[in-house]
Design brief:
Radius of gyration: 27 Å
Number of helices: 12
Oligomer: single chain
Shape: globular
Strand content: 5-15%
Structural class: mainly alpha
Largest sheet: 3 strands, antiparallel
Number of strands: 3
């Protein structure tokens, strides 16, 4: 009898293959904003004595942040509790499921929650200005801060439907541009990474372990996609390599309570509450990350070259070994002999 009960107990447990090891569910909770306690009681305004100059009344703030964020996180908890996704962060969910249509509901709620959080973290009642570095980047991309403001506000006002408008910075060039994402679209590189695949990984043919391609022609033939990836039969490529610096939320829940249907007035008011200090810090981090990456790559290439003997002490590259190697490979191919590592 005891053995039967154990079997039945195991059967009940195994019916939930993705159940968490924890006895208590890991529920995602609304993160606390730096000025949340004050905003919750006073709204978001530069001058509490003049409500007409505020960005959010108390009711407007609670709707746009508390109620919306709680609803999004509640849906995420309902979709992930006692599943393999229960312990994933919002970032993990967005990155993991950006390419999975069957996970659209989970992705949309997680991405929307991240975007709304980013939006409110970029708001401040303090008077801030862009750093000299960020201002220079803005002037390089939009001619002036004023021109950028006008263009940004027009983009947000012209959106036909809800979403977010972002200022994003390219990680490779530091160029800035305005990005519009509708509904819960994500501005993060990780959510778009799958779109940059040069071949369809599901149909790419690779040689058996321990073998190499006989020649370049065989490599090109074997690695050419056998069918085009993508639902509509076309390979999707993108050069998107940017990260967000600031954004405005254009969902009606963000402005309807205090601005009715006047979205343009809302966006203009939001412009006065941008936390330029935070935006400048994010931009600086992106720039420093690129400079560090470039420096590390150069150091690695130089060190590798010295080990191979094709870099002088002053760091100048020599192509002698590379040319000899290419000549040897071409000679072997012309003689129809297998390359090293490929059995004849």
């Amino acid at each position: 009898m005891k053995q039967t009960m154990k079997i039945r107990s195991f059967a009940r447990a195994s019916s939930r293959p993705f159940a968490s090891h924890s006895t208590e569910p890991t529920l995602k909770k609304r993160p606390e904003l730096s000025d949340e306690a004050f905003w919750r009681e006073n709204g978001i305004s530069h001058d509490l004595s003049n409500p007409k100059e505020s960005l959010y009344s108390v009711a407007g703030y609670r709707l746009a942040w508390e109620r919306c964020q709680d609803q999004l996180l509640g849906r995420i908890n309902a979709l992930t509790t006692e599943t393999i996704d229960e312990h994933k962060t919002l970032e993990d969910i967005v990155e993991t499921y950006s390419a999975y249509p069957e996970k659209a509901q989970l992705f949309n709620n997680a991405s929307m929650a991240m975007n709304n959080h980013f939006f409110f973290r970029g708001i401040t009642t303090a008077k801030t200005e862009p750093s000299a570095e960020l201002k220079a980047l803005i002037e390089n991309s939009f001619s002036s801060l004023e021109s950028f403001g006008l263009e940004f506000i027009e983009h947000a006002s012209a959106m036909f439907g809800p979403g977010f408008v972002w200022l994003v910075q390219d990680r490779g060039t530091d160029n800035l541009r305005i990005l519009v994402t509708y509904i819960a679209g994500s501005p993060y590189r990780s959510a778009h990474a799958f779109r940059g695949s040069p071949v369809d990984a599901a149909t790419e043919i690779k040689p058996p372990q321990g073998r190499t391609y006989r020649d370049r022609a065989e490599q090109e033939r074997m690695t050419r996609p056998q069918n085009s990836p993508g639902k509509h039969g076309k390979e999707i490529k993108t050069e998107y390599n940017s990260e967000p610096i600031l954004c405005v939320n254009t969902w009606q829940s963000a402005y309807l309570r205090d601005f009715n249907l006047d979205k343009k007035s809302y966006v203009r008011r939001w412009w006065k509450f941008i936390d330029w200090k935070r935006a400048s810090e994010i931009s600086r981090d992106i720039t420093n990350s690129r400079l560090y990456s470039d420096s590390a790559s150069n150091r690695k290439a130089t060190e590798s070259g010295r080990r191979l003997g094709n870099v002088n002490d002053d760091g100048r590259l020599q192509s002698v070994i590379e040319d000899d190697l290419l000549y040897d490979i071409k000679a072997q191919i012309s003689e129809a002999r297998p390359l090293p590592g490929f059995p004849g």
